[in-house]
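Pasting as-is:
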Amino acid sequence: MSNALLSGEPVRYSQANVKNFNSLQVILSERYIFSSVNDFHLAEAMLADHPSLKRDPRSTVA
């Protein structure tokens, strides 16, 4: 991966890695989720399975 970062070449990831990255984005999103291909199946399934994800995950400073 460091070679890819230094050369500017893309890093190849498996479908499982991409799904994991996308699910982390859903979990950590605060307002909006965007899709370049209008595909929100993963986000919809995650929200159906875990309604608590609809609540605000923002960090707070004490």
